[in-house]
Design goal:
Elements: H1 10-13, H2 16-30, H3 33-56, H4 64-97, H5 111-142
Helix pairs in contact: 2-3, 2-4, 2-5, 3-5, 4-5
Length: about 150
Amino acid sequence: MPTQPTKPSTFLLFPWGLMSIVIILVLNLTLRDEWFSKNWSWIALVLIIPAAILENFKVGYSTMRIMFLKVVFSLLSFLLVGMAFGSALTQYYNKKFVADGGMIKAINLPWYVLLALVVLLMIQVAQLFSMLKAVKREFMQMDPDQ
């Protein structure tokens, strides 16, 4: 008797890495230099390590819905971090090359925020490659020649 497919839990569908990226950017924008610069390492530690662990739980589940959402949320993460890096480069450009009259609006991202974002993107890339390995394994199991 075939088993009925069950719906994946919301725990597996929730974008933990994307949520961590959004929280880091929001905290950087709202809590300016005083508090955030003193506590950035703890904030990054509390957001990066759980995101890595919780995203790692998704690797063993190779349903199409989980894999599709993982790819979509990873692309959104890359888009968000790319826009943040672009704005940080604009801020650098303003400081280095533009006179006071022609300033372009940009957000200020310190080095530790950029580092946390890069670490979260590396976690996303590692998870994508792990997911591809799971897909390959699943297809190999369905291959009649093996």
